[in-house]
Fold:
Amino acid sequence: MKSGNIIAGLDLGTTKVVALIASVEPDTNIINILGIGTAPSEGLKKGVVVNIDKTVKSIQIAVEQAELQSGVSMQEAVVGIAGDHIQSFATRSIISIPHSNREIAKTDVLRITEDAKNIKLQADRKILHILPQDYIIDGQDGVTDPVGMSGVRMEANIHVITALQTAMQNVYKCVERAGVHVKGVVLEPLASSSAVLDDDEREVGVALIDIGGGTTDIAIFHENVIRHTAIVPVAGNQVTEDIAVGLGILNNTAEKIKKEYGHATVESILHDERFMIPGISGRSPLEIEKNLLARIIGPRMEEIFEYCFEE
Structure:
């Protein structure tokens, strides 16, 4: 198989690292999944690398599993990035059309995107994505594809996503140390939206909310254009911590009962039941009802969705 037909991705999450190797059929662009590897993530917190060695080890384990399944060596990969250091804002870029016939070409669209890169940022931040939302040609707004149109002046409303440079450098360092070259980076909610949203949803308007372990990722679309992205530093791990504190148990036990018995609302419990949780330090096991667990989980889930609603 030609190496050009192989693509690979790495998702560095707070709770797990996922590696994926796939092949792309050149004529149809159909993607065939060849191998997937997962490993517990112990070196990241809220999407940010806090321990280089542990993160490298997790990446190596996930990559080895994906390579074993696929029979293909992962030499380079596109890496998904998230974390509460991600910030986004809107800006506007303006250029003049230099051609004698005043017809806008693809090079002009690229030029206006490049012009947006000249925006002043804080010294510790780096541009991750520049996403044009719409264009304005000689005062006519709402243009989605300006190529071929005539005009003297073109403006673009642009969504800029930035990341903390040190956080990006640590991600690059971990992946490279694991023996994989970083082909590119992509914001996690953008990757998720490409995977699960269709054109009709993007056209009508939709908010994609991805609740992970350490962060909740948000991407908002309307009229087929991304309007807003955000990373909320509250997610599933906070739910687990609430259970651990509320019931006086260890975090790994709390995570287990959250997955097995957890409900976000009491109303969603069709058949309430009791279950046992082990006591700590020789104490007797405790008997807990599902509805008690739901009353612990519910307020934190409400908080997460309130943050999303604010965005």
Remarks:
- The domain at 3-83+166-197 is CATH 3.30.420.40 (Nucleotidyltransferase; domain 5).
